[in-house]
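Appendix B, Record 12. Input sequence as logged:
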Amino acid sequence: MKSILIILAALVQVIFASSVDCPKCSKKVEENIAFEKGVKDLSVDIEKHTITVLFNPSKTDTLKLKNAINKLGYTADVIEYKEVKK
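Logged structural output:
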C-alpha cells in the first residue's frame, strides 16, 4: 500500500501601515492587489490606514506585495506578520 503525503501550507497574514485614506484609494488597492499571484484575501481599513493581506508564501512574499502597493502610489510598511493555518 502506497502512502500519500499531504502537506498543508500555512498562509501568511501581513498588515501594512499605509497612506490609503479615502474610498477611491481603497478601491484602487482592492482592485489591483487582490489579483496579485498568491493573494487569498485582502481588506483595506481607511480609518486605521492599514491594508491586510492573506497570501500563499509559495506564490508571493511581503516585499512583492509592498512593491505592488508602492507602484499604486501608496506607502506600505509592515506592522504585523504571522502565519495562519487554513
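DSSP finds two helices and four strands in the chain.
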